Every structure is written in C-alpha cells, then in structure tokens.
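Troubleshooting: if your tokenizer reports a length mismatch, compare your output against this known-good record of 460 residues.
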Amino acid sequence: MPDDLTKMAEPYRIKMVEPLRVLSREERIQKIKEAGYNTFLLKSEDVYIDLLTDSGTSSDYQWAGMIMGDEAYAGSRNFIHLYEAVKDIFGYNYMVPTHQGRGAERVLFPLLIKKGQYVIGNMHFDTTKAHIEMAGGTAVNMVIKEAEDTENYHPFKGNFDVERMERFIREKGSENIAFILATVTCNSAGGQPVSMENIKEVKRVADKYGIRFFIDAARFAENAYFIKQREKGYENKSIKEIVREMFSYAEGFTMSAKKDALVNIGGMIAIKDDEDLFRKVQNMVVPLEGFVTYGGLAGRDMEAMARGLEEGLSEDYLHWRINQVKYLGDKLREAGIPIQYPTGGHAVFIDGKKFLSHVPQEQFPSQAICVELYIEAGIRGVEVGALLAGRDPVTGKEILPALDFVRLTIPRRVYTNSHMDVVAEAVKRVYARRDSIKGLRFVYEPPILRHFTARLEPVE
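Known-good structure output:
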C-alpha cells in the first residue's frame, strides 16, 4: 500500500519558488499582438504557464555540483566526470561537449553528408532538418503510418517503417544515403517512443546496405522507460540496461542535454569506437563551439550535465514524469479534445487540423490555437505543424505535413498537476469557441526556421 500511495504524488519536494505574474485578458491580447501572434516572441515574464519547451530544468544535486565548477580552459575535471558518465551509461568511448543539440548537429552533419545525399529519419525535427539541408542533404521521414492516425493506440508510434525505408534505399542507391537517424523519443510524431525491436531492425537494414546509423538522444531515458513499460522482455530490466542496449546498435549520437540530462544548457556528440570520425569531430568543434574539453560550456555546466545524465535514469522520476503528461492528455481526451494518442514522453500534442477543421492548413490552425491559449489563460504552447514545416527548398511551396500539432510541452519538475488542471480547462474553453477562431497569415517570413521569428496577423 505505501508503494502505491507514493506513486500518487511528485517524487520531490519544492525547495524554492518562483512567483508567476498573471496579466489581465486585455493585457494578454495586447502582448500577443505586439509579438506578431508568435509565442516565441513573447517575454517570459508575460507568460503564466510556459509549455513552449521541456528544455532547461535541474535539481539541487546538479546545482551543488555547479558550485564545484572547474573553469580551466582545457582538461577540466568536470569534463572528465562527464566523459566517465557517458562511457558508463552509453558504453561509448569518445565524447565532445557542445553548447546544445543544434551545436552537435552543426559539427557532425557536414562530416557525414555529401551534397545531394539523403538522411533517413523516423521523423526529423526542425533544427535537425535545417542542419541536414544546410549541409547539402535532404531530410526524409520514414515514420510508420500509424503515427498519422492520432486517435488510435499504438505503443510505439515513433517506429520506422522499415519496409518503406528499405525500398527507398534500393531506389536511391545506398551510396546516396548519408546516414540513418533515429530520434528517441520521436518529437515530431508526438513525443512517441521507438521500440527496441524497431531499433534492431533499423540496425539490420543499415548493416545490410553499409549505411551509418546514429541516434538523436535528447529524450533517451523517456524512450527507455516506454520500452520497459510496453515491450515484452524488458519489464524486469533497469532503465540503464535498456539504454545500454538501445545505444549498442548505433555508432554515435547527438544530444540536446537540456531534455533528459536535466540541464539549463548543454549538448554533446558521442561516438562508440570510430576514432577517425572522433578526430574529425574534434577538429570541427574547436572553431565552431570551443576547445574539445569544453565545447562552448562552462565547467559548471558540464558537471550539471554529468549529474543529470545519472539522475535522469531514476525510475521513480521517470514514472512521475511520464504520468504527468498522461494526466493532462487524459483530461483532454475526456473532454473530447483530439490529441495524439497515446500520450508521449514530454508533451501532449493537440491535433490542430481536427481542433480547427474550418481553418485551412495554409492558415496555420495549430498556431492559431497557440494564440488563443495565450489569450485565454496566459499559457504558452508551440506549433509543430505547417508553420514549423516551412517551404519546400526546391519549389518554394508550403509543406503541409500530415501531422499538424499544438505541442503542450511539460517542463521537468516545474509544474504541479494543479497547473495541468488550469491548462486542461483553458483548452476546453478555447475548444468551446473554436468556430469563431480565424487562421493566420504572414506579415514577415524568415527564409530559414521561420517559426522562431516570423510575425503574423489574423486572416480577416
């Protein structure tokens, strides 16, 4: 009985509080207008509940380590601790830190991609796709079709469609595939996990055609937790054992450590045993990020990352984390709100096309919902749909993805379920008046990663 009871509440206690500012509805209307109807351009102080990202939270254990930061330019003891943590958890022999995940992509991808090659992923995220294209490649998504059916249950909607991927490789020629990248969990598909069986199948195909296989490891621990909960044969394994097996099938990974490593800033590239690639990475890191033993980070940041990698494997923490996301998702489903089901590891993804079925996808229905959530209750979500997808780099036409989401991203150990209740009520209120909501059009459209800085206005 005590064990069951302890799973009902947060596995932490609040040591410090940060007061939240609540603006009036009239003020929120003015603030979102000034921000060009783009939630990225809102000031943090004008947001009540911030669900823009799950990046950047930490613990007292990590902060204690930050006091012990060794700020030496080279050979910091915090780098040594980070290296040892990576080797222990993932089993990889080489690692270089970067300032965050996109720094890792910026360093690694040009070393792997030749102009005109394809990079196959389950479903690439925005910065990943941008860095592939900047390196002269083309990003191709091969997620299973079940991911596009948001209403039906599938335990691993982040899986690759292996048969379709193999057909693509044969059609294009293996020499035209730069590498395969598995994103775990798969953010763009709704924070959906990838099964161990699917990772092994991807590895089999990669080996068959002599193609390199890497992992985007931002949410590696959440993916391992889902494997433990949903995949036969892993229910009695530890999270660390599952992580070790997952990464044994790849030859390297990039990571935004701001997710499952629980840090405010940081990332890395890790390579299993390819010393030649590691030396090339080192040579690229120095001019782009910083010296090879700090990669754009202070010593205190690397210490927090080392401790966060270890802390993020806690099953008690992961249980609460995943179930807080499920708590919000269940409340929305009970109210008839269309979401990606089942809920994933880090966010609840509202199906924007179904929520605002009268708004054409070219008018960014999910972004319009984000705007209305801010007006309704000061909640900042983020669009993962047509606005984020951008334009086809060849034709310039709008890319209209099958999945068009509002991502309500739950920061780690930041909000209680009382906050989730507020979010659920706000979504329900917006849904009740959905027929009156209008789409959006551009006032300013940047050429790359437009969703970060675009300015929009309502379509009259």
